[in-house]
Write a structure and sequence with these properties.
about 45% helix, alpha/beta, elongated, 12 strands
């Protein structure tokens, strides 16, 4: 596999021994395919981060661990890589551990592997599970600061949270839908089954605000059990049949199920008068431009990742100040105020 990088740099990027990397590069066999894949990914990561390799100064290795659908994980990866050349005074190199709905034990094994191998920091999006909290404790004991992203682990020893103010986002969704709906219109709320604190906070903010603004307005919940679009479509169709007053949707999770939800409205010949979703990914951008979403609650993910890097530097004394959490403001995006970065994204 041709490459311009020293074996030592590839080994550091992959978190493997130089001997293992050398064996893979020279195709000497005796290495698991998963390890071979890790070496190939490390070379690809080094190529994307090649501008960082030319910089001098203190190098911080940052592990990004994300449990999310591939489209969101890729957005996080792209956002972080866009910020690496801008973060100073340290030079940051990123290693990526991205998976969709992995078993908790697998996620914990990834975090424990980082604790053994070493890193200057971890940026983590994971469910609020006792085993994950315990793994964060072990990272803290190893001197590796953890910054939670988008969804928090408030009872853990993470040093900070960066990301959307989820309660404020849920409250904003409730306010918008209450303005757009008739008095008797009910709201369908869709979410995933995972124990992500961010989704819980969004739902609590939404429910509390809706009760305050319109005490008589019904909220009908749908929990997506699998992330399968057709299964969600069936569930939404059942709710629409059972509750003829449903006239709007608040989708508080990022799974790609919004098109399936809209398809269920079409199946039952029902009109969705308003639809508020999260995250301006390619699917939601298309639905918004087509007028099928009313608004998308968005935030600056690149800024979140830059702040995460700054928090890690503060935790190591490379920047002044005490690490603290940063809550991103909620941006209400409509077809008429699309951010330029959304329109130019690959």
């Amino acid at each position: 596999m041709p490459h311009p990088y020293p074996v030592r740099e590839i080994a550091r990027q992959a978190g493997l021994s130089e001997a293992t990397v050398d064996r893979v590069l020279n195709q000497r066999g005796g290495v698991r395919q998963s390890t071979v894949d890790e070496v190939h990914r490390a070379v690809a990561d080094l190529h994307r981060q090649r501008s960082q390799l030319r910089l001098t100064g203190r190098t911080f290795f940052l592990d990004l661990v994300v449990d999310a659908p591939a489209r969101f994980s890729q957005a996080v990866r792209t956002a972080l890589e866009s910020q690496l050349p801008l973060v100073r005074p340290a030079t940051f190199r990123a290693r990526f551990h991205l998976a969709e709905g992995p078993p908790v034990q697998e996620l914990v094994a990834t975090l424990d592997g980082i604790a053994r191998r070493g890193a200057q920091g971890v940026v983590l999006k994971a469910p609020d599970h006792p085993l994950v909290v315990a793994a964060v404790e072990r990272l803290a004991e190893a001197g590796i600061p953890v910054v939670t992203l988008v969804t928090d682990l408030p009872t853990s020893r993470r040093v900070a949270y960066v990301g959307l103010d989820n309660r404020a986002a849920g409250a904003t969704a409730a306010y918008l839908l209450d303005q757009w709906l008739p008095v008797d219109g009910a709201v369908l709320v869709t979410r995933g089954t995972g124990s992500f604190r961010g989704e819980d906070d969004r739902e609590m903010g939404f429910r509390a605000t809706l009760r305050s603004l319109a005490p008589g307005r019904r909220q009908v919940d749908v929990v997506d059990p699998t992330g399968d679009a057709e299964a969600l479509r069936d569930l939404v169709r059942d709710r629409l049949d059972a509750y003829p007053e449903i006239a709007a949707v608040y989708s508080l999770y990022a799974t790609g199920g919004n098109a399936a939800t809209l398809a269920a409205f079409a199946d039952t010949a029902r009109t969705c008068r308003a639809f508020v979703a999260h995250d301006l990914d390619a699917e939601n951008l298309g639905l918004l431009q087509d007028g099928r979403l009313s608004a998308v609650l968005h935030h600056d993910l690149a800024l979140d990742l830059r702040r995460a890097c700054q928090v890690v530097m503060q935790a190591h004394g490379a920047l002044p100040g005490t690490p603290r959490s940063w809550h991103s403001g909620v941006q209400v995006v409509t077809p008429y105020n699309l951010p330029s970065e959304a329109l130019t994204a690959p």
